Amino acid sequence: MIGSSRRLRVFARSQPTDLRKGFSGLYGLVLTEMERDPTSGDLYLFVNRRRTQAKVLLWDGTGLCIFSKRLDQGQFSCLWRDSQAPALRLTKSELDLYLEGCQLVGQETLSPPEILLQTTGNAGQCVV
């Protein structure tokens, strides 16, 4: 699938998307509706209403890339149960599972929460 040597974050749009949109249209959705920076290097997943097609938008440092998949049979899992949220957060592994047809993605938390380190201000000690 989409390879990279660095850790990637994935954000899925929480509503169906008209996948006739190209680079500019998807870029605009990331900015306005998902409230994210499309040039951050993160992946952005979009799925059509029938859930038979998906597109992933990625800024690779030199330009935008769109990866697309159309299913011959079946449907992708539904990601828009909470259409009020601007985006659903996935890991790169969850994106791979989603595009392979896993039905649990977006329904079950597959990854542990992200650990954020905070400094305490006491000689560089960290609190988890």
How would you sum up this structure, described in words?
Helix 1 (23-32) links the parallel strand 1 (9-13) and strand 2 (43-47). 15% of the residues lie in helices and 26% in strands. It is an alpha+beta fold. The chain is built from 2 helices and 7 strands, in the order βαββββαββ. The chain has a 5-stranded mixed sheet, sandwiched between helices. A two-stranded antiparallel sheet has the order 6-7. The protein has one domain. The model has no long low-confidence stretch (mean pLDDT 82).
Topology:
Elements lengths: L8 E5 L9 H10 L10 E5 L5 E7 L4 E7 L16 E5 H9 L17 E2 L6 E2 L1
Number of helices: 2
> How much is the radius of gyration in Å?
16 Å
Q: What's the overall average pLDDT, rounded?
A: 82
Please identify the structural class as seen in this structure.
Answer: alpha+beta
* H/E element sequence: EHEEEEHEE
Helix content: 10-25%
What is the molecular shape? globular
Say what oligomer this is: single chain
Major sheet size, sense and barrel closure: 5 strands, mixed
Number of strand elements: 7
Strand content: 25-35%
Poorly predicted regions are none
End-to-end distance: 33 Å
Outline:
This protein has one domain.
Key descriptive features of the protein:
globular, 128 residues, 7 strands, five-stranded mixed beta sheet, 15% helix, 2 helices, alpha+beta, two-stranded antiparallel sheet
